[in-house]
Amino acid sequence: MPLAAPDREIRDRALALQKTLVDWRRRLHMNPELSFEERETTAFLEETLRGWGLEPVRRTPTGLWADLEGGGGSGPTVAVRADIDALPIHEANAFEFRSRRDGVMHACGHDGHTAILLGVTRTLLDLRDRLPGRVRLVFQPAEELLPGGARPMIEAGVLDGVDRIIGLHLWSLLPTGRAGIAPGPLMANADAFEIRVRGRGGHGAQPHLAADALAAAAQVVVSLQQVVSRMVDPMRAAVVTVGVFRAGSAFNVIAPEALLQGTVRTFDADVRARVREALSRVAGDVAHAFGCEAETDYREGYPALVNERGTVEVFRAAVAAQMGEAALVEPEPFMGGEDFAYYLLERPGAFLFLGARNPEVGAEYPHHHPNFTIDEAALPWGVAVLAATAWRLLEAPLAREG
Ligand SMILES: [Zn+2]
Ligand SMILES: [Zn+2]
């Protein structure tokens, strides 16, 4: 199927925006705002979009969206999403445009995502007369904080009239110039749990008169290692990590209570349900075996992010056209969570990892590290790939997967 997306023009415009993209990104980087508090960021976006003649829609305290109507035919509506929030991390970078706010930092690259989506808007506005449909530009707040900003945006109507949705993450695990995308699960269900083990305290020399919550909790930690190794299909991925163990107050006192906190990461709903059930059963039964009780509190985080095959194929074609065939890599699924997943529960779409690693410019730290930064040379690639993908989706609407 020959596609007539104006790849050359998109690419030229995206590359010509390089300096502007860097200016936007640095401005955002210097003024980071925490999840659900992105007031200045939202005001800046609103002003910029209005200045371009668009009409931003604000139905949540922070974040907004705007529709760009193409003049090249009445195609479908494709949404392109960027997240705009920063993290409660104190920046350790020394560069001139480092965060001006103590304890708040764009340490995940969302400043870059926001700049990229402004670049997509500018690029498509320039080609608006030929754009064969409508593009909804979605600037979403609060990706980094549960319950996340995606759901309130959906409840506010961001997906009304939308046929498909796409997005990307600048990715520190991939070098600049590469892009990773694949159908199926790309990011995990990211859940949290807390187990309280209760026994009976007593004198360290009289264990027979007490029920040792610390010893029982230690057995719970050991037994939880069996959940993944013995209760989950070995062909499916799962992680159970206990990250906190708190118990006891003195060397000669038997602890009456112990607290465990941890996280569960899975890709499939049934594996998730199985691990969740096993966790509270193992904790309860093991504690019981030692004369204690265990209470498990399980909190579901973001669902797994599952890419739809049709959109992935279109993304790949756009990457090949914009960045070259060699840019495409098979991404490793990542066990982190991402609330873009909520959109994909409602509409077909896909999410791309865009390489932004480059040790020569210091972009070699993992996401959420106080020295994290992105290679700004990746920004125009983000613009080019998202604009070209959106264009293709408008031009040749896909049937929905059954
Ligand atoms: Zn993050
Ligand atoms: Zn992120």
Please describe the topology of this protein.
Elements: H1 7-16, H2 18-30, H3 39-51, E1 64-69, E2 77-83, H4 110-126, E3 134-140, H5 150-155, E4 164-175, E5 179-180, E6 184-187, E7 189-198, E8 202-203, H6 213-231, E9 238-247, E10 253-254, E11 257-266, H7 269-289, E12 293-299, E13 305-307, H8 309-323, E14 328-329, H9 341-346, E15 349-357, H10 379-395
Helix pairs in contact: 1-10, 2-4, 4-10, 6-7, 8-10
Detailed description of the structure:
The chain is elongated and about 85 Å long. Helices cover 34% and strands 23% of the residues. The protein is of the alpha/beta class. It contains 10 helices and 15 strands. It has a 7-stranded mixed beta sheet. The chain has a 4-stranded antiparallel beta sheet with strand order 9-11-7-12, with helices on one face. The chain has a two-stranded antiparallel sheet with strand order 6-13. The longest helix is centred in the last third of the chain and has 21 residues, at 269-289. It folds into 2 domains: 7-187 and 304-395, Zn peptidases (Aminopeptidase, 3-Layer(aba) Sandwich), CATH 3.40.630; 189-299, Alpha-Beta Plaits, CATH 3.30.70. Strand 2 (77-83), helix 4 and strand 3 (134-140) form a beta-alpha-beta unit. The chain has helices at 7-16, 18-30, 39-51, 110-126, 150-155, 213-231, 269-289, 309-323, 341-346, 379-395; strands at 64-69, 77-83, 134-140, 164-175, 179-180, 184-187, 189-198, 202-203, 238-247, 253-254, 257-266, 293-299, 305-307, 328-329, 349-357. Bound molecules: zinc ion (2 copies). One zinc ion binds at residues 108, 110, 143, 169. One zinc ion is lined by residues 108, 144, 367-368.
